[in-house]
Each structure stands twice: as structure tokens, then as C-alpha cells.
Structure prediction request, 172 residues.
Amino acid sequence: MRERIEIFEGDITKQQVDAIVNAANTSLLGGGGVDGAIHRAAGPELLEETRKIGGCPTGEARVSKGYRLPAKWVIHTVGPVWAGGNRNEDQLLASCYRNSLKAGTELGAKTIAFPSISTGAYGFPLERATEIALRETKNFLEADKSLEKVIFVCFGQKVFNTYKEVAKRIFG
Ligand code: AR6
Prediction:
């Protein structure tokens, strides 16, 4: 199972995968961070489509095409805004990973790339978020046979090192 998870440092918009996950906001109308980068790389057709979707509640996921991205699909999910840890943030972040993975398998995707959801503008503590990301993915892959690879695309050395350390703890 560990061989179906990859930790990679780079830019998610460049990933040659079936689907990339976007850390969006509830409007699905774009924003900064990885959301802005994905919209810029995909082109204006992406916004046209997400406008029609009409938003997404926190913890859920919605699917669009990838347009000018190498990825065929974008799975938009909305992470929780960190508010100290007692506002259901852990459960909502876990739902983002579960619902995104489920949406990917429903599309027939074999390869999915994730950014570190909620750990930028939304302020979720990185190590805690990484544990949730890796545990949820591990649990999902143990029950699913269709996904071949889940790639965690780490933007910068700090995120990359955190994923490597937490993965060592979880997978040995
Ligand atoms: N590839 C991979 N990861 C990236 C990239 C990239 N090109 N660019 C940034 N990251 P954030 P959030 C990393 O703030 O915390 C937006 O405005 C970044 O370094 O993008 O979920 C939305 O519209 C960090 O590790 O997402 C929402 O309003 C991670 O992506 C809000 O920000 C997440 O940081 C969502 O906040």
C-alpha cells in the first residue's frame, strides 16, 4: 500500500496525473495560493465551469474538467479554516480527503495529486494536517483497489520534510 503513495516536492499544476485536487473556498470562484495557480494554469474556462457548479460546502468535493492543465480533471474541495481545533476542523479536513478520493475513483482516475489542504491561508497546523492527509489516504487505499497512485505535491522544503517525517511514523 505504501508504494501507492508518493511524496513529491513541486507545483501541482505541472503534474501529469488523471486528477489534481484544488484547495478551494466555498464560492469555487478562485482565490490565492494553490487555487489561484490552478485557475491561471487551467485558463478561464475553468472559472466558467466552477461558476455553474455554484459553490461547495466545507469538507465536500466537486469535479470539473482540467482544461489547459495536464490533468484531465480538477477535484475542488474546501478545507476548514483553522479556529483553534475545537470547531470540527480535524473531521472536516478528513472529509476533504475522503470525499476527494471518492470523487476521483468515481471519475475512474488512477492517479490523483493533492496539495496540503488548509495549511496555507486557512492556517491549519501543518503536522496535524499531514497526519490526517496520510491516515485518511492510507485507510482509503486499503479498501480501494482502483487507485494506482496518490501523490502529495509539497510546495516547498518545509512541507516536503513534514510529509516525509509523518509518513515514516505512519508507515514505518
Ligand atoms: N502547487 C502545490 N501546492 C501549492 C501551490 C502549487 N502551485 N501553491 C501553493 N501551494 P493555500 P488553503 C500550497 O493557501 O490553506 C485560496 O485563496 C501552499 O504552500 O493555497 O486551503 C482559496 O481560494 C500550502 O502548502 O490553501 C481559499 O480561499 C497549500 O498549497 C484559501 O486560499 C495550501 O495553501 C484556501 O486556503
